[in-house]
Design brief:
The chain is an alpha/beta fold and 229 residues long. The chain has one domain (35-58, 78-224): 3-Layer(aba) Sandwich (Rossmann fold). 31% of the residues lie in helices and 27% in strands. It is built from seven helices and ten strands. The strands form two sheets. Strands 6-7-8-3-9-10 form a six-stranded mixed sheet, with helices on both faces. A four-stranded antiparallel sheet has the order 2-1-4-5, with helices on one face. α5 (147-159) packs parallel to α6. The model has no long low-confidence stretch (mean pLDDT 93). Bound molecules: adenosine-5'-diphosphate and magnesium ion (MG). Residues 15, 17, 22, 24, 42, 44-50 line the site of adenosine-5'-diphosphate.
Amino acid sequence: MPSRLLDVRGVTKTYDASPTPLDVLKGVALELGEGEAVAVVGPSGCGKSTLLNLIGALDRPTAGSIAFDGRQLESLSPAELARFRNRYVGLVFQLHHLLPQCTAIENVLVPTLVNRDAHAPRERARALLERVGLAGRMDTRPGQLSGGERQRVAVVRALINGPRLLLADEPTGALNEEGAQDLMRLLRELNRDEGMALLVVTHSTAMAEEMDRVLELHNGVLVPRRREA
Ligand code: ADP
Ligand code: MG
């Protein structure tokens, strides 16, 4: 068992909604080892994005605890939380959220602007962009890139500060089948090469099968995926 990176215990999330509050997560438990790759599957609206947002410290649980490297996220100050989001986790979403007026490499460098420990960020950005097959596209703006290329830029941006965990929320959702397969392979290769853990939400059975484990969010809790007969 790899050493533990992430420990989620008894996490619940209730949204204020009318007429009644919405209990989305009802006691989620999840342990993730250093460098491990895990897929989370489940029907639309079951709470997958909610869970990733809690782990990425974009939102706070209603109850329960999330510990990263033995430190409880709820005990961190706002400044420490900002640092956690910048250094330790990388986030990739279904939509790339790149800045349209900036080139690929400028987009990748954005997270390094607030990272005083960033070492030779431009060299790392170049190396990573080359690594994902974008050597010739570094000075291109997102509007001139294909959907798959934009997602690769978004992945490199998420990795630029060397996170220990990459959170990917349906990263292939806006790509065609071939683009989806390429991105899935790339994420898995980067997980192995860079050594960061990977937690990926996906609708794709093929993508899920590539990971070390597949978990299903079902009725507000995470369970090992039931095998289809
Ligand atoms: P998934 O990613 O699995 O499709 P989500 O986590 O986005 O599911 O949403 C789970 C449920 O919570 C949905 O019913 C959604 O409408 C609701 N929801 C998500 N975010 C909010 C919010 N900020 N306020 C109220 N309800 C929300
Ligand atoms: Mg979602």
